Amino acid sequence: MINFQQVSKTYPGGHRALEKVNFHIKPGELAFLTGHSGAGKSTLLKLISLMERPSAGNVFINGVDLNKVNSRQIPYARRDIGIIFQNHRLLERHTVFDNVALPLIIEGTHHNQIAKRVHGALDKVGLIDKVKCHPSMLSGGEQQRVGIARAIVNSPPILLADEPTGNLDPELSMEILRLFEDFNKHGTTVLIATHDLGLVARMKYRSLTLKDGRMLQDPLAQEVL
Ligand code: ADP
Ligand code: ADP
């Protein structure tokens, strides 16, 4: 599903963020991506979501070599991927409904499908009663759940999360992770970048670790080579 082969990323200015990274995540897997701040976690997620391009190596998503996806094809390739950010990046002047509907509007989904799917997504994260609210009226945990609803509203097979619990207390963090677990149980492949090792330890899932842009030994990484 997600396959990195000898992937390196050097940013303009010469900073090497990733160095010959290899790993493979199977369809239906849930995995954590850990590592210190600056280890390269966000960069790795950005390569999967085509927000950045590798300097060397290949990223395969669903068997498609992303090096072969040209800039015009990027919006289509991204449909397979839902992304959740730490600071949720909600549009403050729009309602919860409009925020969650955004990916569908961008995709050109027919309007009579939109309401149904937005309500479905909000139902999954337990926020159906907040549909008319503006983000500022919601708690931090609720805002994060709106971000999750927006990420899953078009049922992407892959869900990426970049420090999704960064601003939340431990109890809310577990709640958010249980949501990811739930999506995963329904078949979504999930990759969660976090530096919260306590949280990772409480869940029994595979954990990939980056250190200074290199992937530390992972028993399953060998499979790729
Ligand atoms: P993490 O998510 O693990 O904190 P990042 O992937 O954000 O790590 O960053 C990895 C390294 O790449 C850091 O040293 C960071 O400063 C650098 N970096 C990230 N984005 C850029 C950029 N757009 N331009 C230059 N350097 C960057
Ligand atoms: P899965 O979706 O089962 O996890 P991958 O996404 O890793 O599998 O790979 C699916 C397909 O992608 C492979 O069957 C192959 O066609 C192509 N692929 C993966 N790695 C390579 C590679 N190194 N070179 C060429 N094609 C590859």
TrEMBL record:
The gene is ftsE. Its main location: membrane. Belongs to the ABC transporter superfamily. Keywords: ATP-binding, Cell cycle, Cell division, Cell membrane, Membrane, Nucleotide-binding. The keyword Membrane applies. This is Cell division ATP-binding protein FtsE. InterPro entries: AAA+_ATPase, ABC_transporter-like_ATP-bd, ABC_transporter-like_CS, ABC_transpr_LolD-like, Cell_div_FtsE, P-loop_NTPase. GO terms for biological process: cell division. It comes from Pseudoalteromonas fuliginea. SUPFAM superfamilies: P-loop containing nucleoside triphosphate hydrolases (SSF52540). The keyword ATP-binding applies.
